[in-house]
Amino acid sequence: MIQAFQGTQSYRLTAADAEQQGNLRSLPATVGPCLSRFNPVAEGFTVVCSDYLPVRPLIEETCNPHDRPMLVLTFGMAGHSQFRGRDGSETDFTAGQLTVTSFHGSRGERRYRAGEQVSQLRLLLSADSVTHYLGQAVSDRLFATGRVVNHAFTPYSRATGALLKQFTQGADDALMRQIHALNLLAQQRHLVEEVKVRPLHPRDDRQLEQAREWMLAHLDEPFSLSTLAMAVGLSDYKLKQGFHQRFNTTPGQMLLQLRMEKAHRLLEQGYQVAQAGWQVGYRHANNFSVAFFRYFGRQASAVVGKKK
User: Fold this and answer.
1) Strands of 10-13's sheet, edge to edge?
2) Positions in the chain short of pLDDT 50
3) What's the pTM?
4) Which of 42, 71, 222, 282 sits 20 to 30 Å CA-CA off 257?
5) What domains, with CATH codes, occur in the chain?
6) How far apart are CA 233 and CA 37, in angstroms?
7) Nearest by Cα to 216 from 261, 249, 268
């Protein structure tokens, strides 16, 4: 069922709202032209071409339909969208950029802006396909954890752009579709294969620690990646990459961890649920309770502390 949220300004959809006809998946016409075409390449290897143009801001609830690990390479061809996982992870998809993620049972929301065309091509590979094309060692490393892991967010080359164009133009030719898909995977394999990571410069290391300290000092305030990057003197990209290398997480995931840990301590000290939520940036007690339950697997009201 389509639901308006934030008044009448936006739409929220679930998987049940989409219509599937063969390889074509579409959202209701009232949302705007939003189509995805699924192109099977081989067992466990699918290419998805999507074109969205929502008339209002759109939140599409998603979940991994396969009970198995997946590697996804998303090539942004137009516009910008974002995935927000229930675990607090954030993944951006931008025109001209390649985003590489792996997950097992991913659940969250895809977010789109009103009136902005978003075109993407995604390579979806199961763990068996990753093993087949890239080797067992790569597969074991990519799927070592059950959470969403962002492996790369980087501009793709002109050669890759040419392949993307060739794929979309020859989508009805099964043989050429398979050739182009395998070429796309081969061009990007270096991003997921084991590479030696250069150590952080001491200055960058200090700035990343300052970013964590800044988060701790501002847990009760609205968060934006750009604000944090500006506060410590790093670009958004370098901040994301640095967090992955220094803390093995994303800024969004660390913020969620710091907020939930502080909230738990406050509840143990006797703060009421709404009070604890407010102290860590949640202005609505219900939103805080949902986030707390997703993080700890228990209700915030079940944490018993001294009455204040």
Assistant:
1) 3-5, 10-13, 58-63, 107-112, 80-85, 90-94
2) 1-8, 195-196
3) 0.65
4) 71
5) 3-191 (2.60.120.10), 216-302 (1.10.10.60)
6) 42
7) 261
